[in-house]
Design goal:
globular; 4 helices; disordered N terminus; alpha/beta; about 140 residues
Length: about 140
């Protein structure tokens, strides 16, 4: 899990879940139906899922101390901040947290800043495999 400081100005690095612990995902998706479907897939795969409808809502959760192991966010969202900018801000606040982006817009793939990406529509096995790989990589880099 990510350790949060009592002081919102202080950040700490990603700390992986203990072996056997249930990994937690912050899922950010503006389309409620897609968000529900994705959250259901992730929960059925054994993850704990926290949901946000846009970048502002996600950042509010992060800043209030939500503990999570991976950010899974749509690239294209309403508002001033897209998923790539959200990922950068989350990583500024929580260094080392793994990020998986998703988009149904193929032309956005080049603008993802080298972050991992899964296209929409995604299927449960592919999504689960990508998330587990990112969590394993993060754990191995500590």
């Amino acid at each position: 899990m990510i350790e949060m400081s009592a002081d919102p100005g202080q950040t700490s690095s990603f700390i992986p879940p203990a072996p056997g612990a249930r990994a937690s995902i912050l899922m950010v998706e503006d389309n409620a139906e897609v968000r529900l479907m994705g959250a259901t897939l992730l929960e059925e795969a054994g993850f704990e899922v926290h949901q946000a409808g846009d970048a502002d809502e996600a950042l509010a959760l992060v800043r209030t101390g939500l503990a999570f192991d991976l950010l899974f966010t749509d690239v294209v969202m309403p508002g001033d901040m897209d998923g790539v900018a959200l990922a950068a801000e989350v990583r500024r606040l929580q260094p080392g947290v793994p990020v998986l982006l998703t988009t149904g817009w193929g032309d956005r793939v080049n603008g993802c800043g080298g972050l991992d990406l899964i296209g929409k529509p995604y299927r449960a096995p592919e999504l689960t495999r990508k998330i587990r790989a990112l969590l394993d990589d993060a754990e191995g880099s500590i």
